Fold:
Amino acid sequence: MVKRRRLYLLLPLVILIVIMAINAIPVYANPQQTVAVTENNLEWATFIYSSLIIAGLIISTLSYVSWRKYKGKLKREQNNDKMVD
Structure:
C-alpha cells in the first residue's frame, strides 16, 4: 500500500522531468547585445506592487488570526459561564 502511494507520487514527477528533458531548447548568448543598467531601466513599479500585495496578505492574515482568537475567547468564556450554573 505504501509502495503504491510512493509510486503514484513519483510517477508524475518522473513524467514531468522526461517531458522537460525532451523539450529542452538550447539558448545561446550574444555578447554583442549589451545594455547598460541605468535608473530608467529599473522597474520599480513591479517591486512596489509586489510589496503592497505581500503587505496586504500579511495584514489580512494577522487580522483573521486575531478575529479567530477573539471569537474563541468569547466561546470559552460562554462555556465557563455555563459550567457554573
